[in-house]
Write a structure and sequence with these properties.
Layout lengths: L4 H12 L34 E2 L3 E2 L18 E6 L4 E9 L3 H25 L3 E11 L5 E10 L4 E11 L2 E10 L7 H13 L3
Antiparallel strand pairs: 1-3, 2-3, 3-4, 4-8, 5-6, 6-7, 7-8
């Protein structure tokens, strides 16, 4: 298992087969819905533009690593990818109150903090390491985390995660690619996170 996750592979396979992602998705178009990141707002890739699927209501078909089981049915999400093995994902949840949103953001951060140990317990031959990159001063705040996985069979992947909140709305953003912590675009990802939280409402 690695942090590139099946979503990127499925998206690339669908493109190769000439299948539009939009055909399989239901756009989340309700009035007042939070705005999502645009492809150009993601950490720049040196050799490819970013592409994006539609904003889709409901839980993702393939739950994102670390937090998938925590996402409620009222989630909305969007997938992103490049022409290379780099992908990103954003999910946003509008809670019924600020207190519920605060608790949900805390739950997501807890899931991310426990993720490395859980992945190693579930996947023999995998070594996972988590890093905390600190807080971002945007709206009610955001935090940035990293995860590196190395397998006995030779793969190495790195992912960055963030959780941010504006009022009763929470967003989770993930960026992932082949590599190690040295390849993680932390500062660019922090800027992406600030943009994502600013755009919630």
């Amino acid at each position: 298992m690695n942090v590139r996750i099946r979503g990127n592979r499925l998206a690339l396979a669908a493109l190769a087969a000439g299948t539009a992602l939009a055909l399989a998705a239901v756009p989340a178009t309700a009035a007042g819905s939070p705005r999502f990141l645009e492809p150009g707002e993601l950490p720049p890739h040196p050799a490819s533009p970013w592409y994006a699927g539609p904003v889709t209501a409901g839980q993702p078909e393939h739950p994102p690593v670390c937090v998938g089981e925590a996402l409620p049915s009222v989630s909305s999400h969007r997938e992103y990818w490049t022409e290379y093995d780099t992908n990103a994902f954003q999910v946003t949840v509008v809670e019924r109150s600020e207190q519920r949103a605060k608790a949900f953001a805390a739950l997501l951060r807890q899931k991310i903090g426990e993720c490395a140990e859980r992945l190693m317990a579930e996947t023999p031959g995998l070594t996972a390491t988590e890093k905390y990159y600190g807080k971002i001063d945007v709206e009610e705040g955001a935090t940035v985390h990293g995860l590196q996985t190395v397998s006995d069979w030779g793969s190495s992947d790195v992912a960055l995660f963030s959780v941010g909140r504006d009022g009763r709305t929470v967003t989770y953003v993930r960026w992932a690619q082949l590599g190690t912590f040295e390849h993680a675009q932390v500062e660019d990802f922090k800027a992406t996170t600030a943009t994502a939280v600013d755009k919630l409402y």
